[in-house]
Design a protein that fits this description.
This is LysR family transcriptional regulator. InterPro entries: LysR_HTH_N, LysR_subst-bd, WH-like_DNA-bd_sf, WH_DNA-bd_sf. GO terms for molecular function: DNA-binding transcription factor activity; transcription cis-regulatory region binding. Helix 1 packs across helix 3 and helix 2 crosses helix 3. The longest helix is centred in the first third of the chain and has 28 residues. Strands 3, 4, 5, 6, 7, 8, 9, 10 and 11 form a 9-stranded mixed β-sheet that branches. This protein has a two-stranded antiparallel sheet with strand order 1-2. It contains 11 helices and 11 strands. It has 3 domains: 85 residues, Winged helix-like DNA-binding domain superfamily/Winged helix DNA-binding domain (Arc Repressor Mutant, subunit A, Orthogonal Bundle); 101 residues, 3-Layer(aba) Sandwich (D-Maltodextrin-Binding Protein, domain 2); 99 residues, 3-Layer(aba) Sandwich (D-Maltodextrin-Binding Protein, domain 2). It is elongated, with a radius of gyration of 30 Å. By secondary structure, the chain is of the alpha/beta class. The relative contact order is 0.13. Strand 3, helix 5 and strand 4 form a beta-alpha-beta unit. The protein is 42% helix and 22% strand.
Length: 296
């Protein structure tokens, strides 16, 4: 069976117009070419698709059954062609983006929607990971882009564009010992168990670690659950309180005596300049750069 796109297009047009001549006019062909194409299609599928009784062809039950599948197949073939063209012009076969777990509550999906509109055939894979693990994924090529906090020291391969400012706040359950004080001293923090979001690699020391005793988790949702259960205090994204107002009833933002209890960090879109990037990654980087230029 050797059925091509032109045969399917002609078949679909005949079904929709109701005649060979009307289909020919719509497709810019002579009626005999349309009739011959349908006849060849019938030979290929080994069944009669139209009853040629009277002035106009009448679709058989088999033709009606195949019509819906034809529409789907032509759409898929068009999408395949568009994707092939995009790939030939530099589009990635897939784009892996890792989002640092504390940033899940930010409006990062706006960027994904933009990519979906611009590159509808692109497969996008989103991962979440602690900061250190996200950086490792970027370094070894598991991810082409990373949405992460600013770093004190950049790896040699890192390049970034700044996105926005985000804040983290120290919190404890309302009945936690630390929550009973108007201000908490550094000594009190030091002696209280801390729940930290950290790399899965235990050899990497967690960032924002203040306490002598601490428990680790690889995402802030687990950290929040443990903090609510009074298992320790920790640092969570302030955006979590905006999305889940009930947290205000369960947690207290701690007021540190010795330093400002609000940690503000710039959020960056980071990529590995030593790795080859496709057109979708370049598009997003340039979009953010242009947005910054217009804002500034």
């Amino acid at each position: 069976m050797n059925i091509n796109q032109e045969q399917l297009t002609i078949f679909k047009t005949v079904m929709e117009t109701g005649s060979f001549s009307a289909a020919a006019r719509q497709l810019g062909k002579v009626p005999s070419a349309v009739s011959m194409s349908i006849a060849n299609l019938e030979i290929d599928v080994d069944m009669k698709l139209f009853e040629r009784i009277g002035r106009e062809p009448v679709p058989t039950a088999q033709a009606s059954s195949l019509y819906e599948k034809t529409q789907q197949l032509l759409t898929e073939m068009q999408q395949w062609k568009q994707h092939a063209v995009a790939l030939s012009q530099g589009l990635e076969s897939s784009l892996n983006i890792v989002v640092v777990s504390e940033l899940i509550h930010t409006q990062w999906t706006d960027y994904i929607s933009l990519l979906a509109q611009e590159f509808p055939s692109l497969q996008i894979n989103i991962f979440t990971a602690p900061q250190e693990d996200a950086q490792q994924m970027l370094g070894d090529g598991q991810a082409q882009l990373a949405l992460m906090f600013e770093r004190e020291e950049l790896e040699n391969y890192e390049q970034f564009v700044e996105l926005k400012l985000e804040s983290l706040v120290p919190v404890a359950a309302k009945d936690h010992t630390l929550a009973q004080f108007e201000q908490v001293s550094f000594e009190q923090i030091l002696q209280s168990r801390q729940i930290v979001v950290a790399s899965r690699d235990k050899t990497i020391k967690p960032e924002l670690l203040f306490s002598k005793q601490y428990w680790r988790t690889d995402n802030h949702h687990s950290a929040c659950s443990m903090i609510i259960q009074n298992l320790g205090w920790g640092v969570l994204p302030s955006q979590m309180f905006n999305e889940n107002p009930q947290l205000i009833q369960q947690l207290k933002v701690l007021n540190f005596l010795d330093f400002t209890p609000k940690f503000e960090y710039f959020v960056d879109l980071v990529w590995n300049r030593e790795k080859l990037m496709g057109s979708a990654a370049h598009f997003l980087i340039n979009h953010i750069r242009n947005s910054r230029k217009n804002t500034n």
